[in-house]
Amino acid sequence: MQLLITTSYDPQTEQLELAAHVTEKLQELSGLAEPVRIVSRRQFSIPQLRKRYGSQDVLLVSRERLEYYHDQQPVMFFHPSTAAIRVKRLMNGEPDTLMQLSAVMPGDRILDCTAGLGSDAIVYSFALAGNGEVTALESKALPYLLLSEGLKSYRSEIPGMDEAMRRIRVRQTDHYNYLKSLPDKSFDVVYFDPMFRRPIRESSSIGAIRDLADPRAVTPDAIAEAVRAARRCVILKEHRGSKEFDRLGFCEIHRSTTKIAYGVIRL
């Protein structure tokens, strides 16, 4: 179904320019001839636009952010989500399980192969405090756009968090193809947080992106390339009861008090 792109009421010049940029970028990334259509908002509500143009998918360029309306799902937009809570805990000297398992240290290069909306990439970037780099990969065009634009424009009230978001390098690409292109030991940590094979239904932030995200499971070949490209470790986040750890060769498993677990391959 065609995606409509529009603005908030009475758009300013910056919104119109961003709407045009987003339209061009989505056409370029999706590889389709006419996957999107930019339309004037005038005084139409989102439901009225949907009815007028026969489309359930609308990307709204508001004054604050990009908002994606899909079918009857809750509106989706970039937000640091749990990263904000985790960053505050790091500031208070509290441990973060993923950062501990990664043994993050100054100068590290981190590769997040399945970025989604970037929560873990933000925590990695904050932990490095500008001494190192985080590269985040997202294969799907719309999540990539929400993430890349959100990281550039989101404003938080947490000291150092905005700077951490701006430092993340985002690329729209398939993680397996990207890993294959890397020289040996290119990154200190290679991280995977794919769509869980067994969803956690209570997670509203994940539920909003599930229909847009790449549904494919991580392959053994991708893990093999990750092991080759990593210097310290490869980490997989999954449901604590997932069989993916065994299938993909993760023997070191750390189960939290929540419903998630981390598998680690040490190198």
As laid out across the biggest beta sheet, the strand order is 7-6-5-8-9-11-10
- Overall 3D form: globular
Total strand count, please?
A: 11
Distance between the termini: 45 Å
Structural class: alpha/beta
Q: Give me the CATH superfamily of the largest domain.
A: Vaccinia Virus protein VP39
Pfam families: SAM_MT
Keywords: Methyltransferase, Transferase
Protein name: SAM-dependent methyltransferase
GO molecular function, one term: rRNA (guanine-N2-)-methyltransferase activity
Word description of this protein:
The chain has 267 residues and is of the alpha/beta class. It folds into 2 domains: 68 residues, 2-Layer Sandwich (Macrophage Migration Inhibitory Factor), CATH 3.30.429; 185 residues, 3-Layer(aba) Sandwich (Rossmann fold), CATH 3.40.50. The strands form 2 sheets. A 7-stranded mixed β-sheet has the order 7-6-5-8-9-11-10. The chain has a 4-stranded mixed β-sheet with strand order 2-1-3-4, with helices on both faces. Strand 10 and strand 11 form a beta hairpin. Helix 3 packs parallel to helix 5. The longest helix is centred in the first third of the chain and has 18 residues. The protein is globular. About 3% of the residues have low confidence.
